[in-house]
Description:
binds alpha-D-galactopyranose; six-stranded mixed β-sheet; alpha+beta
Amino acid sequence: xxxxxxxxxxxxxxxxxxxxxxxxxxxxxxxxxxxxxxxxxxxxxxxxxxxxxxxxxxxxxxxxxxxxxxxxxxxxxxxxxxxxxxxxxxxxxxxxxxxxxxxxxxxxxxxxxxxxxxxxxxxxxxxxxxxxxxxxxxxxxxxxxxxxxxxxxxxxxxxxxxxxxxxxxxxxxxxxxxxxxxxxxxxxxxxxxxxxxxxxxxxxxxxxxxxxxxxxxxxxxxxxxxxxxxxxxxxxxxxxxxxxxxxxxxxxxxxxxxxxxxxxxxxxxxxxxxxxxxxxxxxxxxxxxxxxxxxxxxxxxxxxxxxxxxxxxxxxxxxxxxxxxxxxxxxxxxxxxxxxxxxxxxxxxxxxxxxxxxxxxxxxxxxxxxxxxxxxxxxxxxxxxxxxx
Length: 389
Ligand code: GLA
């Protein structure tokens, strides 16, 4: 049964009628442009065929009642009196209902008048794997509120409010990439996103290629503190160059003054400055259908994340090296925040399933760990699936 059927069937069992709306918002994988979003830079992610789904109908008492099939848990919240479940951001991050309330809070704070609703939610974006299950949930909820409250769907604005929910309500200090791609994704394409202007340009996936996500099955705690430390190091470097964000430093400008920086700040800044350049080149390579060039840039990105930005891990390096070693692979790199989670590879389409199997088995031989492997399709961003819009 598809997830759409699952949420619809459960909705009908609970409420005895067909849902008024069915909404879908996807997770994402980033092809290139890592740790650049909070530097006002460029990213090149695609929305994937794994998503959060909500089936729902209106309520006229200003309440949201949502049953999660995945957590077998029901959230009840009053829009006029939203409250955090815990003072501890670490606990809020683990609590699915906080993402729902956080989006409601951010929309109301921005001045939107919200209507209540009730329904059922389920998703198949693996949680904690670096494929943005939380952004998918946030954008599904934002799309739901827009549908029941008859709000105009302004995708970049909604993405910013999803990010605000995550930063200020849940308490996770993330950039704008995940919500932007979940809100604005395009089937068959990655999107070049300018994280300063929020302009997007679609970049077609090269023909006869597939994007494969390789989950190392490792997770590391304390990602938050390492992530915040990287953000601070980038801000220090931006101050040194006298700009508001590293986006404004070109590779030449960086090189001219690099030796005035201490070793760590220099390597952090070098990653961001060169990654922005690689991301723009990757979007051009995609425009030209040049899979080999795109793959080469992904390999360079991994090297930079591993050696200069230092956010990779032994498991990620192992799976990336195994992937890069396959003849049918154009390129591979870690993806997302790092320290564990997933890598992404660009491979020849007809060989994608063989590639996935041999990487998983060689990774198991090398580490004793079991990788999950997803051959992904690029899908549309957050949508009302029913009624057809
Ligand atoms: C996480 C954050 C994003 C981005 C990436 C790194 O996924 O949520 O905003 O910073 O890390 O590129």
